[in-house]
Design brief:
The complex is a heterodimer of chains A (193) and B (81). Chain A has 193 residues and is mainly α. Chain A has one domain. Chain A starts with a helix and ends with a helix. The model of chain A has no long low-confidence stretch (mean pLDDT 87). Chain B is flat. Chain B folds into two domains: 49 residues; 32 residues. Classes of the chains: A mainly alpha (193), B mainly alpha (81). The interface between A and B is large, with 91 and 66 residues.
Chain lengths: 193, 81
């Protein structure tokens, strides 16, 4: 949770520097973005998540599929409610809670949508931490994992395990792993439409 | 440059050297991320932003993507359980 304060602090300082100064950082933004994407790729490449998928069977694929479909449908509905272009709405929702990827990727095309992509996905993570314990009173605990999207393999995993029990650990990890692998590709494809 | 290039390069590099890469990637990832978010903030700071509108939009997206995911999880996942 403390890293979240650094992230928010970094965003706020950046906003202030952008608003009240005329510093130019050249193409450092793009350099950092490609470096981050490369590191994410290395992390995915050396991850052992694929081995875990085989152990779980059908649910390992159906739950992430449900999350992808549900998130995109939610994004589509949001585009109608907020009067936004469908392309941007789908790109924001295709982050599946991965705010640190969605924000910077969208900011390449639009600073405003970058901030929306960042905050919408950060809010998804926070709401999952707050409401997963409440959701599992009405929805089966392994299905309620879908609310956390890609974050269920790291930041929301402790809450899910604490309230859902250790038996949902692998399914939450695999769910997050699959969405983490899908998100960078899906956002890029949507942005190029 | 398309992000597929560094992403695929990273995946291939990570897979090929998965036994040799013994370092924890958390620190380089966190440092890069904080710098990236700072630069994103700088770009956003140069644009006129309505904070209330952005907050409402973000909350709407978060709530609807969560509800959509739960709905499809119950509909599709309920059959497999």
């Amino acid at each position: 949770m403390s890293f979240l304060y650094f992230v928010l602090g970094s965003l706020i300082i950046g906003l202030l520097v952008g608003k009240y100064s005329s510093f130019h950082f050249g193409n450092l933004y793009e350099v950092m973005l490609y470096l981050l994407i490369f590191i994410i790729g290395v992390d995915l490449g050396k991850s052992k998540g694929i081995k875990e998928i085989r152990k779980l069977g059908k649910i390992a694929l159906i739950l992430p599929l449900a999350t992808v479909m549900g998130s995109l449908m939610g994004g589509l509905l949001a585009s109608f409610l907020l009067g936004l272009r469908i392309k941007w709405a789908l790109a924001v929702s295709a982050g599946f809670g991965w705010y640190s990827l969605t924000g910077p990727l969208l900011a390449q095309y639009s600073a405003v949508y970058g901030v929306i992509g960042f905050l919408a996905n950060l809010t998804r993570e926070i709401l999952t931490i707050l409401f997963y314990p409440i959701a599992i009173k009405r929805i089966p605990k392994e299905l309620a994992i879908s609310m956390g999207g890609a974050t269920t393999m790291d930041s929301t995993l402790p809450v899910i395990v604490k309230f859902g029990g250790s038996e949902v650990t692998i399914i939450a990890f695999v769910h997050g792993f699959i969405l983490t692998a899908i998100a960078p590709f899906l956002i890029s494809i949507i942005l190029q439409l | 440059m398309n992000i597929f290039i560094p992403l695929l390069a990273g995946i291939i590099f990570g897979y090929l050297f998965r036994r040799r890469i013994d370092i924890n990637l958390d620190k380089p990832m966190s440092t890069t991320l904080l710098l990236l978010i700072f630069f994103m903030g700088v770009e956003a700071g140069r644009v006129e932003i309505n904070a209330v509108d952005i907050f409402i939009s973000s909350l709407t997206f978060a709530v609807l993507t969560i509800l959509g995911s739960l709905f499809f999880a119950v509909v599709l996942g309920g059959r497999v359980r």
